[in-house]
Structures are given as C-alpha cells and as structure tokens.
Design brief:
Helix 5 runs antiparallel to helix 6 and helix 7 runs antiparallel to helix 8. With 310 residues, the chain is mainly α. The longest helix is centred in the middle third of the chain and has 33 residues. It has a domain of 160 residues. It contains 10 helices and 7 strands. The strands form 3 sheets. Strands 4-5-6 form a 3-stranded antiparallel β-sheet, with helices on both faces. Keywords: Membrane, Transmembrane, Transmembrane helix.
Amino acid sequence: MNTLRWKFVIPMSATGALAATVVAPKSTVKLTRLLDSFFAESWTLLVASFMMFFSVVWFIILETESFSRIRVLFDSRPWRNTPDIMEDTSSSEEFKSKICCPFTGEDAHGTCPICHSIVSYAGYYHGDPPMLHTIIGDSILEHRLAMKASENVRKPKLGRIQLDTLINYRGNFLFGTVSPSCKGCYIKAWCWTVGYRMVWQSTILGFNTMLCSYLFGEEVKVFDLKSTLLCLSMFFSVSTVCMLLSILSTALVFIREHAFMQSDAVPKYVLQDLGTVPEKLISLMADPCAKFGSNPTKTYWNWLWAIKKA
C-alpha cells in the first residue's frame, strides 16, 4: 500500500478474482472441476510469465546507453541551488539573499541533509513514521557519497559529520519508506533504489510462488497450499508490473515538470507526446508528488506518528 498508494487495489482485485475461482464450491461434474483448475493455473502462469518477461526486458533496457542517461541525470542532482559543502569553495562567490525552491518556486528556508539544496516546506520530504521506517528492512541508500565523505582529508570534521548523516539516510525495502530529504533526493531514492529493488523482490516472489505451486502444491494435504501459492503469485506478479510502471511514470513526470531536469542528456522521446493511451497510463500510474509544486510527504500515515517506538 505504501508503495502503490491507491493503485494497491489493482493487485488486490486480481488476487480476489483468482481466490474466488479457486475457493468456490467445486462442481460435481469432473470435467467442470478440471476446467476450473486449468483456468486458475494457466491464468496465473500467464500473468507470472508476462511479469517476468516485462520486468527483465525493462531491467535490461534501463541499463542500455540511451535509457541509462535518465538514471545518470538523477545521480547528478541538477536541482542543487547551492555548492556542495564537500567541495573546495574557497573562491569568493556571490549568492542571492533569497533562494527560490527548485521544486515549488517558493522562498526556500530549509536545507536538504543529502544534497544541501535549500528548499521550501512543500519541497521537502518529511519522512515516514519510525514504526514503519526503522523496524526492519532498512538499509543505507547513498553508499558512494558515504565513501566519498569518509575519504575527505581536506575537511575531516565536516566529512565525519556528513558521513554520519549519510549513514542515517536509509530506505526500507519492505515498507517502501525513505528518510527525510528534499523532493529531488526522495524521487531519486524512490525511483532508482528503494522502489527499483522492491520491484526485483516482487519479481522473484511472484515467479517463485508460481513454480512452487506446481512443485509442492499437491504434496501438502493439511490445507489447500496450491491455491494459496497461486493467489500469492498473482498478487506479487500484478504488483510488480504496477510498481515498475509507477516508477517509470514518476521519473518521466518529474523530468517533464521540472525545467532543470530537461538537459541535452535527456532522450528526446522522454519530453515528447507518446500518444493518447501511453500518456493516460503515465498520468494514472505516476506518483502525484512528481508534479511541480506538490509536497511528496505522505499524509495518510499521520496517525502512526502518535505511536512511539517501544
């Protein structure tokens, strides 16, 4: 739910439809029972196979020279409106007394702990409840920046402070949460680290549960293991496709909505109209926070902030 938001109903509906088929009262006619079983198994196999093919194809495409430039663009963090504190800034530079937030256009007054951009309140991702974020499954997101900070010999004290900050900047690959940061760093972490890895996890689970339904489904007699595995495979398979489409659509909308992302490194087709159906699909699957001026903080978890960690 935290990953797909309202789109969570898509895999749930597909799983519910399959569950209604496999748990429905069995017909007394043997041929009808065989047809029902064949439909459930073949439909799950078809969806899982399509999911695996779709995911692998896109994983390969995103590593090609043309498409990989999109991810490299996010790595360069073009939304920065201040110099990197880890670089040598001894030369005198003049800065404006008022800096506008690159994500909202409002006056900026807060600093991102990761890229050090100065952003407004609406341009900052305020994080998720610790109950979800730090309970289990969290990991460091910016290993390369942390290594760079630890190797800083010109500013060792500042490097140590930044190292501690980057170690605390984490993503949870079970609940899809990210530590507080500016909107740009959040979108980067979500699309190309947290969400990207969760798609891999869901791909493996969806295909493995489908295989296990054939390998071990008939051996367990205590409960209907095969039907359970088929439903799990359907859920993870549809979730994988939805998450991958959501990641790609969110990155695409973020690039289109923010002028600083539209450089020569961006493939031309990213900024072009892709047609009525693809554009509607992009608008449907993209995270609303990718649009200019939208606050990325999730408000539906506010009630969990009142629950303190034990």
